[in-house]
Amino acid sequence: MVLTAADISILPRPTSKLSSVNWDQLMFGRTFTDHMFCADFEDGKWIGFRIEPYGNISIEPSLSAFHYGQSIFEGLKAFRGSDGQVRVFRPEMNAKRLNASARRMCMAEVPESLFLEGIRALLSIDSDWVHGKAGYSLYLRPFLFATETYLGIKASDSYRFMIIASPVGSYYDGRIRVRIEQHYSRASAGGTGTAKAAGNYGASLFPAMLGQKEGYRQLVWTDSATHTYIEESGTMNLFIVHNGTLITPPLDSNTILAGVTRDSILALSRRRGWETREEPISVDFLKTGLADGSIKEVFGTGTAATIASIECIGINGVDYSLPDLGLESQANQLATELSAIKMGEIPDSLGWNWNL
Ligand SMILES: *Cc1c(COP(=O)(O)O)cnc(C)c1O
């Protein structure tokens, strides 16, 4: 199936909510644009491609997504450059990852043209929501859930695919405090850690709440078998800078989400000629490097925060602080370059942007 713009019906909202938005006080994920994109998978086919006003949807209580968790999502952003052009960052990567999640969760896959044309249709009608001011972007949330109304445990026969969009502002959030988690697990080998499956996030909330009570913003998950190797943090992949070399855990453990930002940071670092390694990072290696100063930077990467520098890591009751290297840090240099590519300020020689 190849979807084109002509296959999508459009029901516009009579009046836009745009004028009521307070752009100086946007909180992540709380404000939504005027429209949403929907499509349904029924009797083995994708049908009903439509743009509707953002709002309530009607579903039955027996909806299988509620009961057995066939629900997956994606997250990506659109930016408006100073040239006025709207660009979406590497959306085909998200389309592929949604389908990798769908296969793991035994759900219908979303054809790439449906994913991309859905984004295009939503951005076309809500394009005024992509603010051009530095730091602003429009967060896109595609998601897929089971819609069969049946209480038997089985893969659903029907699904809905939707895309909603939320403007996000520029706020400097500062460096964050994290704690190494060595009791609870996010993912285990053979589990669903590589899928952006809703249940993974629900399961992380209780351990994360315990960490927050101790003053840590996020947990750094470790491998579930031994709790001695670090994996990732919240919805971010992790990098350490060890004597100038960027190291991030490899994806072959099948417990780590393959981040688009992770991939982009590795590519940009290699292009700069910086040494990069994808290899296991033990908690001991991290602890030693933090203590002797050979590890000067630790940062998380993800679409929401882009790059979040870490100021302090709690390991087994001891807090290890990291120096604030400011704009000189490798993390900051990469963040600046990545942002310039997304905004169209420097040539997109890696072909990452998708122009609306
Ligand atoms: C989404 C996510 C990431 C980051 O992926 P990006 O594509 O860079 O946004 C990392 N880890 C987890 C667990 C995630 O859900």
Overview of this structure, please?
This protein has 356 residues and is an alpha+beta fold. The chain has 2 domains: 165 residues, Aminotransferase class 4, branched-chain amino acid transferase, N-terminal domain (D-amino Acid Aminotransferase, Chain A, domain 1, 2-Layer Sandwich), CATH 3.30.470.10; 167 residues, D-amino Acid Aminotransferase, subunit A, domain 2 (D-amino Acid Aminotransferase, Chain A, domain 2, Alpha-Beta Barrel). 24% of the residues lie in helices and 29% in strands. It contains 7 helices and 18 strands. Strands 1, 2, 3, 4, 5, 6, 7, 8 and 18 form a 9-stranded mixed sheet that branches. It has a 6-stranded mixed β-barrel with strand order 9-10-11-12-15-16, surrounded by 4 helices. The protein is globular. The two termini are 22 Å apart. The mean pLDDT is 96. The site of pyridoxal-5'-phosphate has 14 residues, from strand 12, helix 5 and strand 15.
Major sheet size, sense and barrel closure: 9 strands, mixed
DSSP, total strands:
18
Q: Class by helix and strand content?
A: alpha+beta
Poorly predicted runs of 5 or more residues: none
Quick recap:
This protein has 356 residues and is α+β, with helices and mostly antiparallel strands. Helices cover 24% and strands 29% of the residues.
Topology diagram in text:
Elements (H helix, E strand, L loop, with lengths): L8 E2 L24 E8 L2 E9 L10 H5 L2 E3 L2 E5 L5 E4 L1 H14 L7 H14 L11 E10 L12 E10 L7 E6 L16 H16 L4 E5 L7 E4 L2 E7 L2 E4 L11 H12 L4 E3 L4 H10 L2 E8 L3 E10 L2 E4 L8 H13 L10 E3 L1
Parallel strand pairs: 1-3, 9-10, 9-16, 13-14
Antiparallel strand pairs: 2-3, 2-8, 4-7, 5-6, 5-7, 6-18, 7-8, 10-11, 11-12, 12-13, 12-15, 15-16, 16-17
Helix pairs in contact: 5-7
Bound molecules: pyridoxal-5'-phosphate.
